[in-house]
Amino acid sequence: MKLIDIVVGISLVSLMQLVPEPAIAGEQESIHFSGSDIVCTFAARPKFDKEVRLTKPSREARKSVEWLSDHVGIHPNFQVMAGKFEAGASPVAFAAIHDKARFIVYDVDTMYQSAKNTVTWRDLGVMAHEMGHHISGATTLGTKTPHDGELEADRAAGHLLRLLGASVEQALSMASVFSSEGSFTHPPRDEREDAIIDGWENAEALLQATR
Fold it and tell me: What is the pTM of this model?
C-alpha cells in the first residue's frame, strides 16, 4: 500500500502485526530538560525548564513516525518518547537535544487520545512539525530566527500531511492550540496557518505535476 493512499483513522492492527514491539532502554525515566536543550515546543511557550517523566511511545506514535519518515525517505535521527506534564503546563510536544541525544517528546495526556489503533490528522501534524525541526537542521545550525524555524516546520508539516492524503482543513487541525498573538519564540496563529497551507499547496502542485 502506498502511503499516499493511507487514510488516517484506518486500523493499524495489520501493520502492527508486522512490527515486533521494540525493547526500549529506560522505559520509564525522568530527564530534566533545560531551556538550552529545547529546540521547539509546539504550543507557544517562551520558557521551558522542567523535569519530564518519560515512557516509551504508544504504537500509534511509533507508526506516525514510521509513516512520515518512510514518506520522505529518511531514517529517524531522534528518539520518540511519551512525556507526562503537570496539568495546565503542556507544550503538546517538543523537540530537544539532551546530552547530544535528539528527542521528540509528546504529551501522553493530549496526544494519541483517539480510539486504539487510530491516529488523527492533528497527531500526525504535530509529529510532522517536530520532525521538521530535526530534519531541517534547525537543531544544529542556529542560523534561523525562532519564528523562521517555526514557520519552516509548519510548512514541512503541511507538505507531509498533503502527501499522506490530508485536505487543507485536516492539515490545519494541528493549529487548534496555536496562540493567536504568538510570542518571542512563536509567530501568531494566522502566520502559522498560512505556512501550513503553503506547504500543503506545494505538495499538491507536486502531486498534480507527477500524475
Answer: 0.83
